[in-house]
Amino acid sequence: MIGALRSVLRRGFECIERPFDRLFGPALNPLAQLGALGFFFFWVVAVSGIYLFIFFDTGVERAYQSVEHLTRDHWFHAGVMRSLHRYASDLTVVMVVVHLLREFAYDHYRGVRWFSWLTGLPIIAFLYISGITGYWLVWDKLAHYVAIVTSELLDWLPIFGEPIARNFISTGTLTSRFFTLMVFMHIAVPLFMLFMMWIHILRISRPKVNPPRLLAVLSLAALVAVAVWRPAVSQGRVDLAKAPVEVGLDWFFLPLYPLTDLWSKGAVWGFLGAFFLMLGLMPWLPPLRRARPAVVELDHCNGCARCAEDCPYEAIRMVPRTDGLPFPMQAEVNASLCVSCGICMGACPSSTPFRRTEELRTGIDLPDFSLQFLRERVVATAATLTDAPRLLVLACERGGGAGHVGGVVALPCVAMAPPSLIDFILSRDLADGVVVAGCAKSACYHRLGIAWTEKRFAGERDPYLRARVPRERISLIWTSALAAQSFEQELDMFRRKVADLPPPKPRPHAAPAIPRPAAAMPAPAVEEVGS
Ligand code: HEM
Ligand code: SF4
Ligand code: SF4
């Protein structure tokens, strides 16, 4: 049931994202930048809020007047800032909702990702408390309505000795002290929210917290345009003697308020409690099955830290050497954070399939999908290729290539394949062309798999693909599992291209050097396979 919901949502996202990707490119696709946009809108709200505070009078008597003054008399700066403050807050809500749905749709919330999911939940609560207290401060008719409904809801909970709703139903009972408390909350809660946002991304390696500059500029320009076109205004001075009727609601922050007319206060709290409880349990409904975590083989680890730099889950740290080898550091895997994506294996300089040893070993390996097993699979699958040109597909098990029939080696992530494996396949003439097939570009399941693969192949990141490897025989295809057809189309194009290539020049079988630090490492058995 949850799986079906996930795949429907995922289809929906992909239908929107594919044209976005084509239109703006994956880097500018806003749906691939939701977390970063959330941070961006937060900063817009913070800066505009600080600006507004210069003009705002925090006393209950003068609050409304001061907001009117800044909106009307200083519309060209403070008024615009007020609108920016409101619209950027609304957009933060939109961003949070879409971000939550997208992480769910792409199954980015189970397994070790429970941490980001659960720490996202208090952010929603903080965001709403910030918004609701913000509406209160304007002290117009909407604020009156918000004050009454919120305090009635709070009065249902056994928190306050005396009912606080009483404050808002007659003149003279609303104290400035209570109003000042609201001002304080409106400033303090966003600070808690920021702290929670920091915790939220703590376990994510290289989180995207800033959108690309062009996207940020366009978003800000759109916000300013809307702020000038439809400025945020108040809804008339509050009259405590009269119950507020006919107020315009902000549906981003106050969608549940009309429910209080239909349901009892207890039912509204029950609904909210059940909603958050269900969200909180989601990462374990059902739990993600995990393969065994990566294991460091100290005999083959020179402490270069590449695996730690490439791991998307902060699961590796470098610690002082324990085995007496002449290197200062060694890698250490935190098994509880490892998702067995194998990206570290693809990063390790010792991961070279050219070695001829009884057992192929490397610095960091997956017990359930070792480098040795990968090489065996590649060799065995290549042996089944009969039709010319022989194309071998190294496919991410979650991408568009995984479902292709024939010549596929499925991997947990394409970045698990060290670039030397491509060299191995082509130089050994195991295939005429190699296809590396991952997820769609803006939706890499392991976040960094596509980026690292492209950088390694372009020679921008170690371990890089050696210059001698014929690029025309390699194709990188990034398509979603739901877009198998576009994968097949790209594959066909590549097949035709490889068929037109002249036969490869025979190359001397030179053993590739394993990059390692100047300090002498115990020489691994680097020999040619089958030469
Ligand atoms: C203002 C609110 C929020 C902000 C600014 C925010 C920001 C971020 C950022 C920057 C990332 C890292 C994205 C990346 O680099 O790939 C992230 C990841 C994530 N967020 Fe949020 N987030 C917010 C709210 C939420 C909420 C409400 C939830 C769900 C309850 C949530 C769930 C997640 C999950 C599960 C990930 C992990 C994705 C992964 O491991 O690939 N976030 N968030
Ligand atoms: S397998 Fe993936 S998650 Fe585990 S340590 Fe290696 S890179 Fe990190
Ligand atoms: S990449 Fe390999 S050699 Fe480098 S620290 Fe990690 S395990 Fe050790």
Hey, roughly how much beta strand do the residues contain?
A: 5-15%
CATH architecture of the largest domain: Up-down Bundle
Cα-based radius of gyration, to the nearest Å:
29 Å
Which ranges are low-confidence, i.e. pLDDT below 50, for 5 or more consecutive residues? 510-531
- The multimeric state of the shown protein is single chain
Distance between the termini: 53 Å
The biggest sheet, with number of strands, parallel, antiparallel or mixed sense and barrel status, is: 4 strands, parallel
CATH superfamily of the largest domain: Cytochrome Bc1 Complex, Chain C
Determine and state the CATH class of the largest domain. Mainly Alpha
Give the beta-strand count. 8
Q: What's the pLDDT, averaged over the residues?
A: 89
| Helix fraction bin | 40-55%
Task: Give the neighbour order of strands across the main sheet.
Answer: 6-5-7-8
Please write out the topology:
Elements: H1 2-24, H2 34-55, H3 63-72, H4 75-105, H5 114-138, H6 141-156, H7 176-200, H8 213-229, H9 259-262, H10 265-281, E1 295-296, H11 306-310, E2 316-320, E3 329-333, H12 343-347, E4 364-365, H13 371-383, E5 391-396, E6 408-411, H14 419-427, E7 433-438, H15 449-457, E8 474-478, H16 484-499
Parallel strand pairs: 5-6, 5-7, 7-8
Antiparallel strand pairs: 1-4, 2-3
The structure holds protoporphyrin IX containing FE (HEM) and iron/sulfur cluster (2 copies).
Protoporphyrin IX containing FE is lined by residues 35-36, 38-39, 92, 96, 99-100, 103, 108-109, 113, 116-117, 120-121, 123-124, 197, 200-201, 204, 207-209, 447.
